[in-house]
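Example 3.
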Amino acid sequence: MATDHKTLQPLEFYKTFLDRKSRPDGRSLLEFRKVTVNAGSIGTADGSAIVKCGNTTVICGIKAEIAVPGMDEPAKGFIIPNVTLPPLCSSKIKSGPPGEAAQTATQFIAELVANNIILDLHTLCIHSSKWAWVLHCDLVCINLDGSLLDACVIALITALKNVTLPTVTYDEELDKLICDSDQKRPLEGIKQPVTSTFSLFENGILISDPTSEEEQLAAGLTSITVESTLVTHMYKPGGCTLDEKQVKKLIQQSELKAKEIVRLIEEVCLSSIAER
Amino acid sequence: METEQKSIRALKCEQSVLSRADGSVMFSQGNTVVMASVYGPLEAKIQKELSDRMYVEVNYKPKIGMPGVAERGKEKLVKTTCNHIILTNLHPRTAVCITIQEMQDGGTLLSASINAVCLALLDSGLPLQCLVAAVTCLVDKKDKIVLDPCIRTVKEGYKAMFTFAFDSQKYNLILSHCEGQVPYTLFQEAMELCQKASHIIFDFYRQAVIRKFSKELL
């Protein structure tokens, strides 16, 4: 009976839960799902991480290579993110060239990188206008159940913290790069922005960390990225409107989540360094 | 903290510039010039057809080069905004095709695109729930908030750049897009400033429609 109601009128079925300030999976309206993080599981990558936010699973693998810096920014390295949503992650994704969801997620991460929010790209420079590190960050979602951006950002930060690069020095006289693979050092100065996704319904109801069903039923969606006390990004692509009080409430909720996630990432990174 | 510039740049528009489109506009905000066209309601492709609403498709064409991932990001922002303002329930199983052509980049392409699309939708006569006005503001390295920055200010570097879009009924936030980091107080101040500036844009829309119909009556 309940499944018939759910199939025929999904929004009405969902509203019966919202009226009781609850959701089908038993969470309260502003409760986030459990986050599990694992670092360094991919041996062939320079840095890697697997993140599960509830059912949404994202794997991040980072490969480093060396290239010539661009002419307009000779002292900056590169971080090239790429979010892939293969058809196995969700029934809504078809095979073929990257769809809108993958491209907008990639653009979201690329904007965070471009504004020096994740890492100051100057630290990736080996020798100005000659050589710089390029980090190819591939984020693959293997199970899509809402809150893709949250999982991608956590995976990217953890994988970057897991990266170890060989020490490279540039000999000016010989015009050669000398690479010492035994002396590996981690990246420094990785900041910790945390993204929280909320879905919005009419009548001012706000729900945090929506599953993919909840995202589809929602009238609007917003992802707020915070880093300690700074508001980094409020990504609200259209959808139903928000007034000032609601914006403030969402930012406060994001700050609470950010504290927990930062603590979790630090624990994981410490234990993965201990294992090495 | 002082606000250097309390008002937005000059707004100009010419509606119905394209003869074949249902709605079109050439819109300029200072030096940023954007052309938008609306074709709809059209017959939707079967894969894209939605049984209860109209499917909104947005194409953003940059001035040079092929559209890439950055353009997809802008398209998604405009598309979800249009899904909210257009009364899509009135035209099920149809589609509306919105195209935005960048003519000149004077610094605030995203907000100019959204404003141009709103004017083009007004020109096309599609039923709208409300209008939308987008404003960009920038927080420079000295914590000064600059409203509607020109391209020179943007190239000088900034702490953060925000684009906010508001609806015409309660002036609540429809769209938000940020680059850079600021403490919450600055973020709130920037949002309030943009909200006040959106009134100027709504007045401009009104003037544009009055002008258009007064010409037709003559």
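The interface with chain B takes residues 100, 103-104, 106-108, 110-111, 114-115, 117, 219-220, 222, 227, 229-244, 247-248, 251 of chain A (CB under 8 Å). The mean pLDDT of chain A is 90.
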